[in-house]
Write a structure and sequence with these properties.
22% strand; single chain; eight-stranded parallel barrel; alpha/beta
Amino acid sequence: MSTPGSSTSTGSSSGASSGASRSSHRRARAREAALARAVEDGLLGPRSPLVGLLDVDGVLAAVGALNEAFEGPAPVHHTFAAKACGLVPVLRLLADAGMGCEVASPGELEQALAAGFTYDRLVFDSPAKTVEELEFALARGIAINLDNFQELARVDRLLAGREAAGPIGLRVNPQVGAGAIGAMSTATATSKFGIALRDPGAVDAVIDAFAHRPWLDRLHAHVGSQGCPLPLIAEGVRAAYELAERVNAELGRAQITGLDIGGGLPVNFDDEDDRPTYADYVAELRGAAPGLFDGRYTLVTEFGRSLLAKSGTIGTVVEYTKSAGGRRIAVTHAGAQVATRTAFMPDAWPLRVGVFDAEGRPKRGPAEVVDIAGPCCFAGDLTATARALPAVEPGDVVALYDTGAYYFSSHFSYNSLPRPAVYGYRTDPGGRVRFALVREAQSVRGVVEESGLSQADALVALRAT
């Protein structure tokens, strides 16, 4: 799929593959229509130079593809990893589409509840759960994945012989190695997550833990996300499956009834196409652990980025253009505050870029090599480097593609830049666009209030005493 005015992370034409799926074509057309309409309606322009746009139909299509890929005799509970986009309207959309929600903090838990997820549709993961958080989850039947043996002992004390109201699992680290991005790999030899299965005595300790706790009924494993190839992820899931089989065999009963296999499907940031697909992922799992899908285990998934990333676009106005050392630079309002990972790890998190004129129409014409810069006051605040793009001019619109996960909700408050507005959109077959406000733009006054305005005199008063 070729999107006018865009480029891949290597500077070539965006998504030129003739194998792009029908959904990719629809998504690209809808995105162009939404950007043009956002400019027309004033959602993006001189007074609102930064906005997030989320393709609702694209999100629902991803949920549909996930459900279809896992169809079979095994019961499956798909949850959305709230960290990928902790915005209540987005979570409510996913709840309405039948998803559950995986949460990893008190804030994410409250967002999920506000979005309408019931307790039985939640999974609580975190390596640092407090006593209060555990008590809350245990009392309400929220599924919990325990990270270590100390946390397991803590739950022993909290239950005090009572039956658990909901599923409780033990997270294990299969230690299968790292993918291309170390920070996204959670199954390395020294990962902070879970019980390291290849450490001496670990497997026996896990079996013993299940033997003495009839209420412990799940295993959880998550290998990583972006940068982790499917065979590596499947190897980790197989390790968890084989351990579950061993535990049940040695105990002589089907105590482990659920396997939480995490999420982590990588996203293609090079072009428009969806790859790998959920069907690709399931095929890899079936090859690695065929018994996983025979219906003896309830499967739990925790996908995040792959459900939303390609449905999101950040639009920003070009404020200035300049040259330095022979390199053209376009200064925009989208930088590290919304694209934090891209700014700090550009090789690991490259973004495709589109250029549109001040009316929101795709720009064409001879390409020039340009850096796309943000507003933050440090030299590395770049969202794209040395890209071949149509000539960029002040007043144009730059679009950052594939930003539906993390980029909208994981704001970096550097330079006290306010959070942008986020809108969801749908397009009809005629290209007409409807918007729905997801989150209002934060005002500068709101930034000041958040920075301790109501306590402005506190330190002066402390000094005076």
